[in-house]
Amino acid sequence: MTLKIMNLSKSYIKNVYALNNFSYTFAPGVYGLLGPNGAGKSTLMSIITTNLHATKGECLCNGEEINKLGGEYRAKLGFMPQQNGIYETFTLLRFLRYMANLKGVKNPENQIANIVNKVNLHKNLNHKLGSFSGGMRQRALIAQALLGNPELLVFDEPTAGLDPKERVRLRQFIYSESESKIVIWATHVISDIESIAKEVLFIKKGELVTSIDPTKSEQPLEQMYMSIFGEEYEV
Description:
By secondary structure, the chain is an alpha/beta fold. The chain is built from 9 helices and 10 strands. Helices cover 33% and strands 27% of the residues. A hairpin with a 2-residue loop joins strand 9 (199-204) and strand 10 (207-212).
């Protein structure tokens, strides 16, 4: 699978761009999106996940515009949003069945059983999401993103609020799922992606400033971040 973004722009107010002439091509592997709040990461992810339409430009999946592909494209997509809005009163099993139905996954029970084992939540299927710890909620959101075996995974701050042990565990798990998938990972935490990313994209004021293979970088990613964003740097 390839996801080609061509001259993508999004304006919420006339002549004020949250995303400005953004171009990049994604192939299987992990890609980090780095930038301060308001940089355009969320707008880019919203367009990629078809939750938002671009003002201009194209987003092509295997050469076809994603909005024209419709359900065919969304079947290839798994999206993990931030935790706000999780279904507190749903049990994990009900939540995963509901998400599988929205995605059009037929006979999802075997998939659900396999996925909850992968994210180590098999003992919590009948527990309400409102009782889950932060790390468990993150794993539940990862589980729903994996339903349907998508070729494209988009994660928005998947390790936010987690302790170091949970952060490392989630990072390793997501990396293990990335061999044949495109994984787009937006974060403020450089250590989350510097050891696993195929490419890291630095986004500022809606524009792609630069992209770099972290294994070939001549300076630490944190130093690059500081030089690009200065006082906007967040830990």
